[in-house]
Amino acid sequence: MGEFKVHRVRFFDYMPTAIRAMAFNAHTERLALGRMDGSVEIFNFADHYFQEKVIPGKDSRSIEALCWVGGRLFSAGLNGEITEYDLENLRPKYSLEAYGGPIWTITSNSQGAHLAIGCEDGTVKLFEVLEESIQFERNLDRQKGRIISLSWHPSGTQIAAGMMDMIRVFDAVSMLTTVLLVDRGFGGSKSRETVVWSVVFLSDCTIISGDSAGKVQVWDGHTGTLVKTHLVTKWDVLALSVSKDESSVVVGTSEGTVIQFQFIAPTLQQQQDKEWVRTRTFKNHTHDVRALAEIETAIVSGGMDTQLVVRPLLEKFDERSHASALRKIQFPHRNLVFCAKKAGLLLFQFPGQLELWRLGESDGHGKPGDSLPLKRKPEKLLHLKRKGEDHICCSALSSCGGWLAYSTMSSVRLYRLQTDNNDISITKVPKLPKILRSAHQLCFSSDSSKLFAASSQSSVLVIALSQSECKYVHTLKPKSGSRQPIHLMTNSVDGKWLATANSDCEIHVYNVQKLKLHCIVPVYGSCPSAMGIHPTTNNLTMVHADQQIFEYSIVEKQYTDWSRKLQKQGLHNLWLDRDTPVTHVTFNPKNPEQILLHDMHMFCIIDQSLPLPDQKTQFYNQMTLRSLSEQERPSHLHAFKICKTFQDLLSVSLLDDQSLVMVERPLLAITSQLPAPVRQKKFAT
Amino acid sequence: MATLFEGFTLCGLVQTQSASDSAIQGIELDGDSDHAVVTDSTRAVTLYKVSDQKPLGSWTVKQGQLLTCPAVFNFQTNEYVVVSDNKVIRVWKEEDLHLDKAFKATVSADVWRVHSAPGGEPVVLFQRGAVRLLDSLLSAPQQPIEDILSEEEKEVIRWSTNIVAEKQHFVLFTTEQKGEHFLYVQRLNPNTLQKYRLEREDSRAPPLSFSASLRDKHINLLYLYPNGCVYQSVVAVQGPVGLEGVQALPRSLRLRLPVGEGELGAASAVALDEAHVAVVGMPHPSARTGKDFLCIWNTNFQTLQADKEMVGRICGQVGILRIVWCYLGKLFVPHGKALSVIPYECQKSSLASALGKLRHPGIAVSKSSVAIPSWNTLLHGDQPQGPTKIVDSRKSVLTVVHLQPFQTGPVEEVRREVEALVSRGDAQDLQLSVGRLACQLVARSQVETAFYAPGALARLVKTQCLCHSMCPDLLLLALEHKDYFLCQLCLQLFPDIPEVVTCACLKTFIGNEVLQTPYSDNLLVPHLKDLNAPQVILFLQYLQFIYLKYSQDVYTQTPVLRSPTMTQIIDWVCLLLDAHFTVLVMAPDAKGLLSNLQSFVKSQVKLFSELGKIEGSLQELHKMKPSKDISQYSIEVIELF
């Protein structure tokens, strides 16, 4: 196969922010995740936990809690506002000041008719959910002290509110309140108020609370009496989530543990005397577990250590399989790194800034495994801070390195870059067409003459670029009438084709020269996670969240023979069992047989000229091949050449000089930037 | 494990007019734990000293009068109480000679039963459901008795008992009304009555027997249906007070007994402890029908733990429901012409003792899953099915097995027939027919001393459908004939060989196979004690020999089929030493052996302490795995093949 020179890049200081809240919509199987920076991510649990949508954050926005009402998503935060999101245009639909000070929590009743929020000033405010908005209805009896957590009784007539040192139960019908007093911690913490971080109200009127004194308490809501106290941690119990059938409750603690309680009979003999019994402890986090959801078959947790963990409950699976494996989602399922292949430049996208780097150079050659001496170090050419409060949602760098663009929710900015030797000059292109207000995706044509901007309802704006001006040309619209945003966009090297993919899993191919829709690739059930158009054959290669690979001939408007062969034979189980999606597809212009792909844990070159591996073939065979002699090798070759030398990969691209750029972001580097976890006594320390 | 010991006959029984009627109305205890008060079905109450099997006293009512309820002992006043002709309560002491001269009182309603238990006052349960304490009733015998059960709706009591728990006294009775069955729980002081509806069995057949016991502040009701299902229902002692109306009584299936063709006529199940149930009046799973057995089943593991054939029909009458009594480790079973007393013992069951321990992890686990038949799976498939299905499957088995050649044919013909049967049968049918066949062949060998079919038996054992409890005489027969090949096969393939048999094998020969037999420590040790000193020394020497052999080539050792593991050897050494240590210390020719063993232990201890020391260092080495220092940026060369 051959040798590659690899630029191993570890200077992209990508830092995900902590997870603050989550809400699972069992009906659509979507998990909404709120991060500290105010961004919201939507994961499709029905489609391999694919990160379907990202709503960028905003400086002034904070998210304390998220809640679904049907298919509508609401958040509330310490800025005192309730926000409803427009999930089609990936932006807040509207924000509403609640006039109660910072909001700690938001929750809807099971009927979906009302929202309740808990405010710093001690009020629980009820909002009626209307067709297009929400409307303030009334305050419940105002209390002294803040309302930290809320839970509706499934009947919708009572609300339990977690406060400081107490839980209050409001009855919406009788207007009466019941007070449950929560103990403080022991010893030194006796003087500190206990914060009831989380409550759940079950249909049998049992209330379960988790508080800052490390207790999980079970209350009888009828009588207002404490039934049982479980001291689970020396630190805080932060989050609670109850399973749909109310037979299990999970709690998240500051120690990073998730503890499960189940409503079971303590002995086999007394099956009818059920009680809440602590059953299992999971430790998949190093820091606070701030957000939790117990879904049908798994416990989903997230917190300060920024990773989303899906821990399947093994008793819900008949056999150990791919689906029953622990899953950690650490990296976004989209690109944050853009490479100018001709110029050897890298663009790193952060929420608040863009960084432009020039790769280094080396002398001479080396044997495989060698590190080459550096002639020139990599260099940061540019640090471009965004304007305004809105975070950057997408960016693009032209392959010649002459243009740079980024978009926030409110504006698109385009820059002209000029590099000669060591000097770089950047000029903002002043007058952009009015129609170009924001974009979900941006990309430049390979000859840098056009900018494509993915706009609302899956449409694409075509902007012509020249030295002197920047002109709107056309809007490409899909025939399907889909309202979903485009999350992938790629164009062909010959400048003729543009392919877009949206959250409806639709892939449209446009003829850019004729400015019209060329074809729609047959819709596949799983969302495409990466795609690319081959530079010579103009075949579109798509990789989906379920790891399936398709190759579609744009010219012939049909799947290629290779794709059919692959589908007929089926992908190797080890390929299908990988748990991170492929996020990049690229090609080798010098060797048209090669398709380059990568996910977080591996980099792969598919050689279409070689036989496909069947299930009996050793799939990860690079080590074996290395040990074989030249003569023996050919009989062992197969199409998938997988290299796992590079880990925690954010991007892989192939420069025009045939060298690879691997951008790694070691998880250890992310962990080391987190604040110290709560101190835990280890044996003999 | 549970054990049924050798029983004895307490007394002969007079046959009543109808063969199915029981000659015994009831058996009760009195103040002496060795006494039994037996009330026959007509006129007599007899007090027996059980261990001597001798009557101490007998009381009868006049001709024309009839005892209508079993006599009970009032533990508070040391008097006996019985009811004659439904309404006359008689109270007498042991020294009274004539029942006629004893105290009697006539009450205003028909009495169903008088119940008494240590620690509680006797209670009188009337046929229409009312309950009175005996004392208060006798103080005003003619007091009006209310009707709990309505006469028009024909609700009648089928069974009753009483339970005395610390300071609480319960009377439980079941009733039948229009095919439906109800449980009444009457609590005394304060008086509350709770009524439960029993779930109806698909066949609509009434329950054959009830048994109630108190455990963990819950009343456990165990009941048996003619289709062989044994259900358990649990009623809390501190039950839901004040709940009105009839509540459904949830039940759980504890056991599904094989019932043979048709349904059980008269059978009774009684709970011995939380895991064991004694069942009388059902056929043995692998014996011919037409014989009645007393079996102890473990409900946790669904295994048959002990069994005993009861000669003659078990006496019982549908409706009386009671054909076995269980007091203080003894089962009282009237059958044929006798009332037998059979002592039993149930040890706390654990999985290890049910399945045995130390199965060879590599080979045996997969086998054991085949070899331990669950009666449920065997008879009904995985899903519990209705009784009709059971009959079908039994019939199909019967048609497969042509019994003729096995009963009379020569050895060679038997072998051929067995071969043909084994190769043709499918797994489910095979399991049952193999068991029956093996029992038949063994039985025949026992009768005809000239007949012994080692080939056929070995073939049957090799199907792995047999286990020891299915055909307990097989291994002993093989031992008797010194057929070591068959013995070894059994030892390899049977998961449930009792420790006593294992030891019997040990006495005859020492092999690999014995060491690998599953066992549980506390049961094996007593049997090991039966070995004499030379046998023990020989055995230890053998163990030492294989131990040495193993420790020499521990690195070259490949897992050989049927070789005991190191752990198994060590375990046996420990057990033998446990059982015979004092004897061995005294025996001069064991001295060398013991000191050798001691040096093994010493060397092992030393080895482990040394290993412990280097463990830490090894872990450090592991951590020191050279981690390449990777900088922020490098240009490397990789090669893909």
Automatic annotation (TrEMBL), chain A:
GO biological process entries: maturation of SSU-rRNA from tricistronic rRNA transcript (SSU-rRNA, 5.8S rRNA, LSU-rRNA)
GO cellular component: 90S preribosome; small-subunit processome; t-UTP complex
Protein origin, superkingdom: Eukaryota
One Gene Ontology term of the molecular function aspect: RNA binding
InterPro entries linked: UTP4, WD40/YVTN_repeat-like_dom_sf, WD40_repeat_dom_sf, WD40_rpt
Pfam families xref list: WD40
Protein name in UniProt: UTP4 small subunit processome component
UniProtKB/TrEMBL annotation, chain B:
Location(s) in or outside the cell: Nucleus, Nucleolus
Domain Nucleolar protein 11 N-terminal, residue spans: 1-344
One GO cellular component term noted in the UniProt record for this chain: nucleolus
Domain Nucleolar protein 11 C-terminal, chain residue ranges per copy: 429-510, 512-641
InterPro entries: NOL11 (IPR042859), Nol11_C (IPR048897), NOL11_N (IPR012584), WD40_repeat_dom_sf (IPR036322)
Domain of life (superkingdom): Eukaryota
GO biological process, one term: maturation of SSU-rRNA
Key words of the record: Activator, Nucleus, rRNA processing, Transcription, Transcription regulation
GO MF annotation terms: RNA binding
Protein name: Nucleolar protein 11
Source organism of the structure: Oncorhynchus mykiss (Rainbow trout)
UniProt gene name: NOL11
